[in-house]
Design brief:
By secondary structure, the chain is α/β, with parallel strands linked by helices. It is built from 20 helices and 19 strands.
């Protein structure tokens, strides 16, 4: 429990009720006493109120999210820290710490370890104050963050594959070069700087707030916001959110002490920390009401939600708290307002492809299925008919000798999880063997692109690249145009968010039937290109049989 203030009185928050732990939650229960040197709550409140963050930071807006509000049936507000000069909240704590240092320490230079956002805050603060800054970053840090630090004049050292390795190297260089180390989260001045976000939220939304959701890496942001908010409004829940593969604070709360995780996932690189800070753990265990863990798909879905409502693109860790807000709201229905922190927008552009593909699965509006169908003419069309009018987002198939064919199919589900259950049950009732791949990480990342390969016994196969209109029924129209006389031997389709879909299809067309086949394609009127002589096809998909006839 948090130590007493200077007058010996117990914290007024010590006896507040805790929300019950639900699935995926770690209760913020009382744990053993913290270290004696820890600051009392009143000192943190004073530090937050007097923090020197506005020399470099803005008071970020608290924006409504009308689309998500309508979906959840309760107000959802987004604290826009992605609009800061370094596109992250981290400059608050970094500058507040540096502004508190004696001049002689500033003149010797500063050093920090960071996955990127703290680094950019330090680089900006150092440029503002005119001091040397050395930044040690993991080699896995997105290039956009590395380049941003260098652009502000900082010296960047890339070391290790995760934050903790970079931290050890920064500590070594600190001693070697006589620099002042700036911890990214486990420092009272940094915590106070981040806590100004909590102060702003309470100023901007004077009415009741049911819960504020805060991302957790090392815990500085959560500690600062929770300490301030629970002191002024103890009835407002403050809930931390972590990735399920980097649940540092969750594990610490379960164990009753800080733990070192053997490894952490790097998708949300801004919160990829193996061990929570000592002071941040003390404050979080006392003031957080719960910690929620969410997976990659949920973060991707939250990135999409932020884009839909604000047209801003968040980094995965920046959308983490909104993913937690959605997960918590699903288990705790009500009408009270929820606030989430959009903590950063430093995202490499090439990661958008992965995020977009996973967002619909995270919303449970797409299902990925592995389905076994009979390997015979007409079976393909019968299966598409069994799916009904639903939009197909992906279809991977390659002919294989034998009685069974296995396909990998993605299907849009406006009805979410109940519709998925109904669809799988209907397919199984129709005699299909179905495996749900929606939560299979290997299938989503790798196998979906590896379905098929060379196939034996296809002397008459021809390969075509089509543009399908992106509307329900387009695939069935294609199959009906071909009829049962032509066997489809390969099929790959993936929705790309455009008004047309790209399709690659292999079709067995005997020489005697080519005129009829060509007429069917012309009648279909879907734009197409004959790729039978494409060298990629000849190298990777064609078995060489009948090549002279191609």
């Amino acid at each position: 429990m948090l130590g007493s203030g200077s007058d010996g009185a117990a914290s007024p928050l010590a006896s507040r009720p805790r929300i019950p732990a639900a699935e995926g939650l770690s209760p913020g229960r009382a744990l053993p006493d913290a270290a004696a040197e820890s600051l009392p709550v009143t000192d943190y409140i004073k530090k937050i109120l007097s923090a020197r963050v506005y020399d470099v930071a803005i008071e970020s807006p608290l924006d409504p999210m009308p689309r998500l509000t309508k979906r959840l049936g309760r107000p959802v507000l987004l604290k826009r820290e992605d609009l800061q000069p370094v596109f992250s909240f981290k400059l608050r704590g970094a500058y507040n710490k540096m502004a508190s240092l004696p001049q002689e320490r500033l003149e010797s230079g500063v050093i920090c370890a960071s996955a990127g956002n703290h680094a950019q805050g330090v680089a900006l603060a150092a440029a503002k104050l005119g001091v040397r800054a050395v930044i040690v970053m993991p080699r896995t840090t997105p290039a956009i963050k590395v380049d941003a630090c260098r652009a502000r004049g900082a010296e960047v050292v890339l070391h290790g594959d995760a934050f903790d390795e970079a931290l050890a190297e920064a500590r070594r260089l600190e001693a070697q070069w006589g620099l002042t180390f700036l911890h990214p989260f486990d420092d009272p001045e940094v915590i106070a700087g981040q806590g100004t976000i909590g102060m702003e939220i309470l100023h901007q939304h004077t009415g009741p707030i049911e819960a504020i959701f805060v991302p957790i890496g090392g815990g500085g942001l959560a500690a600062g916001i929770a300490t301030f908010v629970k002191y002024l409004r103890p009835e407002t829940k403050v809930i931390g959110v972590e990735p399920d593969d980097a649940a540092t604070m969750s594990e610490a709360l379960r164990a009753g002490d800080r733990v070192m995780l053997p490894s952490v996932g790097l998708f949300a690189d801004g919160v990829a920390v193996r061990q929570a800070g000592e002071e941040t753990f003390r404050l979080c265990r006392e003031h957080l009401d719960a910690v929620i863990t969410v997976d990659t798909d949920a973060m991707c879905a939250a990135v999409k939600d932020i884009f839909d409502d604000t047209r801003a693109i968040s980094e995965p860790s920046g959308a983490l708290s909104l993913a937690g807000a959605k997960a918590w709201s699903a288990k705790n229905p009500g009408a009270g307002p929820l606030v989430a922190i959009s903590s950063g927008a430093n995202l490499n552009f090439d990661r958008l492809r992965h995020i977009a593909e996973r967002a619909e699965i995270g919303e449970e509006r797409e299902v990925l299925l592995g389905v076994t169908i009979p390997e015979r003419p007409g079976a393909y069309r019968a299966f598409i008919g069994a799916l009904g009018p639903r939009a197909i987002t992906e279809f991977n198939y390659r002919y294989a000798q034998g009685s069974d064919a296995r396909i990998f199919v993605g299907i849009n589900l406006p009805g979410g999880k109940p519709e998925k259950r109904d669809l799988i049950a209907a397919l199984e009732s129709a005699g299909y063997r179905v495996a749900d791949m929606s939560d299979n990480e290997m299938a989503k990342v790798h196998v979906r692109y590896m379905v098929g390969g060379r196939a034996a016994g296809l002397a008459d196969e021809r390969l075509y690249r089509f543009q399908f209109p992106e509307r329900p029924g387009a695939l069935m129209k294609f199959l009906e145009a071909l009829g049962d006389g032509f066997n489809i031997s390969l099929f790959h389709y993936r929705n790309h968010g455009a008004d047309y879909g790209r399709v690659l299809a292999g079709i067995e067309v005997p020489a005697a039937e080519r005129v009829r086949f060509d007429a069917a394609l012309e009648a279909l009127a879907y734009p197409y290109v004959d790729e039978t002589d494409n060298p990629a096809y000849r190298l990777f998909l064609d078995n060489g049989i009948g090549a002279a006839d191609h």
